[in-house]
Each structure stands twice: as structure tokens, then as C-alpha cells.
Amino acid sequence: MFAESALTLTQGQPKTINSSGTAMRSFCPDCGSGLFYRNAAVLPEIVDVQIATLDDPEALPPAVQIQTAERLHWMLQVQELPEFERFPS
């Protein structure tokens, strides 16, 4: 999450919808990828930027986990599952 004043778009114009009351979600109008989340009532002057949309998402590793109240129980051990770099064959 970043201060809204720190966000600068360099190209394009996202499509924004009101998803539930004060929650505003912005998407790429061409491919539908989620870009931003804003909620002035809960997070005034804050924009949540979807990490995968950044040029270098590795540069900003997560520091906290939020909204875990409804997390599925099995997510606590997800790191123990087998991994595949691509679809398994």
C-alpha cells in the first residue's frame, strides 16, 4: 500500500468500479488484470497496488499479512506442499 499522492500512472487509463459501498477496484480495460484497490472510508488517501503489476515486484517483499480473519485453514501449511515451476506433466 502506498500514499495515493505517490501513485503516478505513466500510460493508459484503468477502469474503476465500485465493488461494495466505498471499495473502488481498478482494472486494465484491455485484459482485466486487477491494478488498484482504494477505500477512502477504511484506508483514506491510501492505494493498494497489486504487486504483480509492478516492473520489479521482487523489490518490495511483503512485511505483514492482513485480512487473515477468513483465511482458509490449510493456507497455514501451504509452503509444505510440493512445488512445480510450471504445470506438472
Please outline what is shown here.
This protein has 89 residues and is mainly beta. Helix content is 0%, strand content 26%. It contains no helices and 5 strands.
In terms of topology, how is this protein built?
Blueprint: E1 2-3, E2 15-20, E3 23-27, E4 34-39, E5 46-49
Antiparallel strand pairs: 1-5, 2-3, 3-4, 4-5
Pfam family, one: GFA
Family: Belongs to the Gfa family.
Domain CENP-V/GFA: 2-68
Description:
The protein is an all-beta fold and 89 residues long. The chain has one domain. Helices cover 0% and strands 26% of the residues. It has strands spanning 2-3, 15-20, 23-27, 34-39, 46-49. It has a five-stranded antiparallel sheet with strand order 1-5-4-3-2, with no helix packed on it. β4 (34-39) and β5 form a beta hairpin. It is globular, with a radius of gyration of 16 Å. 1% of the residues are buried. The mean pLDDT is 92.
